[in-house]
Amino acid sequence: MQNLYVIEPGSYLRKEGETLVICRGKQRLETIPATGLKQLALAGRASISGAVLDFLISHGIDTIFMTMDGRFRARLLLDDSTHTALRQQQYVRLHDPAYKQQLAAVIVREKLANQSRLLLRRASQYDEPMLRTVGAQIRALCHKSTGAADLDTLRGLEGYGSRLYFSVFGRLVRNDAFSFNGRNRRPPRDPVNALLSFVYTLFTNEVLNAIKSAGLDPYCGALHEIAAGRPSLACDLVEEWRPFAERLILALVNRRVIRPEDFVLRSEKEQTDELLPVSMKPDAARALITAYHRQLEEQLLYPPTGQKTTVRWIIHSQCRRFADSLKDGEMYVPFTIPR
Fold first, then answer.
1. Most exposed residue of 38, 73, 210, 306, measured as fewest CB within 10 angstroms of its CB?
2. Residues in contact with 267: Cβ distance below 8 Å, sequence separation at least 6, in sequence order
């Protein structure tokens, strides 16, 4: 097992010999081999013992703490001094205003293009003129992004494109039991937004792992401003993968794999710091995580090699290609989502 998610409320993780045991109170919920573990994600109020923490540190296991709605809280940061030269190059490149602007424009242009393609494709499938109209509007923004005067203008175009996109995203939800009236987060206030936030976080964590494997500094990016606790480069490079997250959520909702009863909805009086407006039940979260990992194993044609490979491998390959672009000065080329 490479990835372990502990999502049961009130559970804790302890180590027994060569196994990790998920417990809640005096009940043993699951026993998992510790060997081969690459990443641990703890959601909600799940906790770990000192022995588990020592095991995670000594084995260099990436450990993430997140809320039940998928919001990133913290990460166990392990020291890595093997990629100093590459990171020096990263800082030099991304300190150059012209290079930074060009890279951010490439990221925004591909994000907008992916959004436009998805809307136009679904417009034909569903015979929805509004999807076609907004898809065309977003496609027009792609051309404007290349000529943006500065980063603030570029970020404004990206934000406007996202508002357009999510203004019609509800038309992609073809299940009367769910509704979507716009993007909201921190915390999300309805099931579809909760699903989107959770899967966006999963993809960001996968990109973050790939960035670290490539030897890059995840906190130094181009499009997203540097801020305490924000992995700006991961936020940049995950943009090309957002359509995968959205397609996954739409498939689960429209095929009725996820149901309204899989969520706990609370009134304002019931909400506290620990009780969010909407949260997934553990079984639904497990189903979502399973579907997410199944999507990462989907085989796609990867143009740089001309071969089919898994989405997970493409994510890691793209981060290595980004590292190579910093070394040789060539501009990074995002992955284009196939039709």
1. 306
2. none
Counted residue by residue, the chain has a size of 339
For the chain, what percent of residues have pLDDT higher than 90? 47
Angle separating helix axes 97-126 and 151-168, nearest 10 degrees: 10
pLDDT band at 315 (very low <50, low <70, confident <90, very high): very high
* Single pTM value for the model: 0.82
Q: For residue 305, what is the DSSP state?
A: T
307 strand-pairing partners:
302
CATH architecture of 3-66: Ribosomal Protein L15; Chain: K; domain 2 (3.100)
Domain boundaries, the chain: 3-66, 85-328
What's CA 220's distance to the chain center, in Å?
Answer: 17
User: DSSP labels for 56-81?
Assistant: HHHTT-EEEEE-TTS-EEEEE-----
The residue-averaged pLDDT of 32-54 equals 79
CATH of domain 85-328: 1.20.120.920
Are 42 and 66 contacting, i.e. CB atoms less than 8 angstroms apart?
A: yes
Cβ neighbours of residue 25 closer than 8 Å, sequence gap 6 or more? 10
